């Protein structure tokens, strides 16, 4: 493995994350081990939230609603789509960020527990996220929502699903989210992108890991749907404003960079956060590494500006 110049704090986070290993290579073993790692990094939930599980169009979901009175126009809402290579992750694995966003922004956050590969490959996860969004728009939730202030956010595979959701709504002529926030997203870039080679053995996600996840989510002949691989879209016009956070030491780095450039070339609005010194999966290191805290500050600033200016 080549040397990646991480800060001591982030290097310690990577080492601790890698300490969670299991001899059980089954998908159940993989998921159980991932859940064990997630629990080890999970901080206590912030006060001032009502947390409830429900379903949207048959898709399990979890709501984080501030205990303050509902705004007159209804709740601003973030739909959160979790990462995990489309193979691991659930409502608990990303509670650390969904609860935090709800408390910091004082908005409703709804997390989606979409179906996982390989048992349910593409388009199952995409279909679930789209169905959940449409159910929210149809009023099929226990919450009154502010129609102008609804955003979608996702990390890694969740960033893929968030971008695909925006493309699908644009293509269907339906109102899109007010903004899309994509955190080190995997957007289906080609295998010869420079970051694939430069970060082939990067901490926490290498190029071979990426290939394995793709093979599980997109089995069979090469998938050419932009809803599976958003960078394959022919047209990037008419998409919501974007905040795209990269991780410097990540084989997916160039996916986010390319998506940013294509949004700008199509006349869209996109803000790129370069993520210097970061690795894939670093969101879990909030409070442990200053460069990760800086990413959160930039994300919160962007989301606050979106919610305020709409």
TrEMBL record:
Entry keyword set: Hydrolase
Record family assignment: Belongs to the 'GDXG' lipolytic enzyme family.
Protein name per Swiss-Prot or TrEMBL: Lipase
PROSITE patterns assigned to the protein according to its UniProt record, in alphabetical order: LIPASE_GDXG_HIS (PS01173)
Organism: Pseudomonas chlororaphis
SUPFAM superfamilies referenced in this protein's UniProt entry, alphabetically: alpha/beta-Hydrolases
Classification via InterPro entries: AB_hydrolase_3, AB_hydrolase_fold, GDXG_lipolytic_enzyme, Lipase_GDXG_HIS_AS
Highest taxon in the source lineage: Bacteria
Annotated GO MF terms: hydrolase activity
Domain Alpha/beta hydrolase fold-3: 78-283
């Amino acid at each position: 493995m080549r040397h990646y110049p991480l800060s001591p704090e982030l290097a310690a986070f990577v080492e601790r994350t890698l300490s969670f290993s299991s001899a059980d290579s089954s998908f159940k073993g993989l998921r159980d081990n991932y859940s064990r790692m997630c629990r080890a990094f999970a901080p206590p939930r912030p006060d001032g939230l009502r947390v409830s599980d429900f379903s949207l169009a048959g898709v399990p979901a979890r709501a984080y609603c501030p205990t303050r009175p509902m705004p007159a126009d209804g709740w601003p809402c973030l739909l959160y789509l979790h990462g995990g290579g489309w193979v691991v992750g659930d409502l608990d694995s990303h509670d650390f960020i969904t609860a935090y966003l709800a408390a910091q922004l004082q908005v409703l956050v709804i997390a989606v527990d979409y179906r996982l590969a390989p048992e349910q490959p593409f388009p199952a996860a995409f279909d679930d996220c789209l169905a959940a969004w449409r159910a929210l728009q149809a009023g099929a939730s226990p919450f009154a929502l502010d129609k102008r202030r609804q955003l979608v956010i996702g990390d890694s595979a969740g960033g893929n699903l968030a971008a695909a959701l925006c493309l699908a709504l644009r293509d269907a002529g339906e109102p899109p989210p007010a903004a899309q926030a994509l955190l080190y997203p995997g957007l289906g870039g080609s295998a010869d992108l420079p970051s694939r080679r430069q970060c082939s053995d990067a901490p926490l996600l290498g190029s071979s890991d990426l290939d394995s996840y793709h093979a599980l989510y997109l089995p069979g002949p090469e998938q050419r749907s932009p809803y599976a691989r958003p960078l394959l879209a022919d047209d990037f016009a008419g998409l919501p404003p974007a905040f795209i956070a990269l991780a410097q030491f990540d084989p997916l780095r160039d996916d986010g960079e390319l998506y940013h450039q294509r949004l700008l070339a199509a006349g869209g609005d996109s803000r790129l956060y370069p993520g210097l010194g970061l690795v894939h999966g670093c969101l879990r290191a909030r409070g442990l590494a200053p460069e990760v805290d800086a990413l959160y500050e930039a994300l919160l600033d962007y989301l606050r500006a979106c919610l305020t200016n709409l």
